[in-house]
Amino acid sequence: MYNSISNTGIIGKKIVYLPTCHSTNDIAAELVRAEGFEEGAIVITDHQTNGRGQRGTAWESRQGSNLMFSLALTPANVPIMQQFLLSQMVALGLVQFLKTIGLPASIKWPNDVYVEDRKICGTLIENSIQGNRISSCIAGIGLNVNQLEFQGIRATSLALETKKTWSLEEALDMIIKELNAYYAVLISGEFRTIRAHYLDNLLGLNETRNFRIANKVFQGQIVGINDYGHLLLLKTGTNHPLELDLKEVEWIWDN
Ligand code: BTN
Question: What is the pLDDT of residues 223-254, one digit of tens each?
Fold first, then answer.
């Protein structure tokens, strides 16, 4: 599997396919520590026994139906204080892939990928710091591809959105191309481009929506993101945006 990937960029030069594993993020982290590691390796599987999501959640994905993979990167030029750029870069590559196939994709802060109001892809970015630099970034990606049913969650898949069954290999090939394009922008130091594209693709930017903080629901607008990746949220009737991290705020859907 996955030996027909046509990519020539940094990401995907080496692909490690495991029919099953605990978590591709954990295997990718082991690869980084192993001798002879080359940046850009991808670990991909059909089934995870301990798939991990954001904020300590589990990531469940139907065996063989979806893409579950992790990139192992060593982005030497990204300052620790701006490591959110890595999340932005990965989300942008995924959104760009979805747009290429005609889907109205966007990024739900901080780094989920949505098609309209349904999540199609989750990312788990785990950076290691040594001294004052990022020594490695493991970017885990779970994309719903051919799964047609989701119980109790607001989710969708490529098959549901495009009404066809996808070859996982073909989808991966296209995604790697877009990830490489955005990684090239990042490592060339064009941080402003990454930030601008992220805002251009941010779900709900400058729209009045409902949010919840500490059990209180209120209306407000997302007005930006700071360099640390905190959400700048302006409560209706106030003048100064709150700076919030992921655990502090919850997005409330209308339906
Ligand atoms: C989320 O939305 O909560 C993030 C989900 C990330 C899931 C992917 S699947 C491949 C990689 N390995 C993991 O254990 N998690 C990520």
Answer: 999 989 999 999 999 999 999 997 889 999 88
Angle at CA of residue 107, ends 141 and 130, nearest 5° = 55
Dump pLDDT digits (tens) for 102-150.
Answer: 999 999 999 999 999 999 999 999 999 998 899 999 999 999 999 999 9
From 141, 145, 150, 172, mutation site for ligand 1 pocket: most ligand atoms within 8 A of C-beta: 141
Show Cβ contacts of residue 124 under 8 Å, excluding neighbours closer than 6 positions. Answer: 25, 52, 53, 54, 59, 139, 140, 142
Q: From the alpha carbon of 61, which atom of ligand 1 is closest?
A: 9
DSSP for 175-195?
Answer: HHHHHHHHHHHHHTT-HHHHH
Q: Residue 123 forms beta bridges with which residues?
A: 141
Containing 25, the helix (H) or strand (E) segment is helix 24-33
Q: Tell me if 145 sits within 8 A of 159, measured CB to CB.
A: yes
Q: Does the pLDDT at position 6 exceed 90?
A: no
pLDDT digits (tens, 9 = 90+) for 23-82: 999 999 999 999 889 899 999 999 999 999 998 899 988 889 999 999 999 999 999 999
CA of 123 to the centre of ligand 1 (A): 5
Indicate which residue's Cα is closest to atom 11 of ligand 1.
140
**Ligand 1 centre from 49 Cα, in Å?**
12
Task: Name every protein residue with a CB atom under 6 angstroms from any ligand 1 atom.
Answer: 23-25, 48, 51-54, 57, 59, 68-70, 112, 122-124, 140-142
